From TrEMBL:
Keywords: Signal
Segment forming the signal sequence: 1-27
Database matches in InterPro entries: PepSY (IPR025711)
Protein name (record): PepSY domain-containing protein
Organism name: Breoghania corrubedonensis
Domain PepSY residue range list: 13-94
Highest rank taxon of the organism: Bacteria
Length: 99
């Protein structure tokens, strides 16, 4: 076996550190990507509804489910969809029934 260059070692260490950082970020978001932020940091349900509507959904109902907002919606084609939204960022993190 030959020597590993200093540059190769540094690249491997950087790649490993990057993978650890990504894993830590994903773990901090918790189940479904909604995290565990205090409710004081959450957007209001009205704001979540408005965010869903700007994404092109007709939002019929918003409720809290497993630390996420669950939006009961219809898409542009009229098909029903249940979306899971991060209550702090407003990012859609899944749909009910996704595995």
């Amino acid at each position: 076996m030959g020597k590993i260059s200093t540059f190769a070692c540094a690249a491997l260490l950087a790649a490993g550190a990057g993978a650890l950082a990504v894993g830590a970020a994903q773990a901090s978001e918790g189940e479904g990507g909604c995290g565990n932020a205090p409710k004081a940091q959450w957007m209001s349900q009205d704001a979540a509804k408005a965010k869903g509507e700007t994404m092109g959904y007709e939002v019929r109902r918003v409720k809290v489910e497993k630390g996420c907002y669950e939006l009961y919606t219809k898409d542009k084609a009229g098909k029903r969809a249940e979306l899971l939204m991060n209550p702090v960022s407003g990012k859609i993190v899944g749909a009910d029934g996704d595995d």
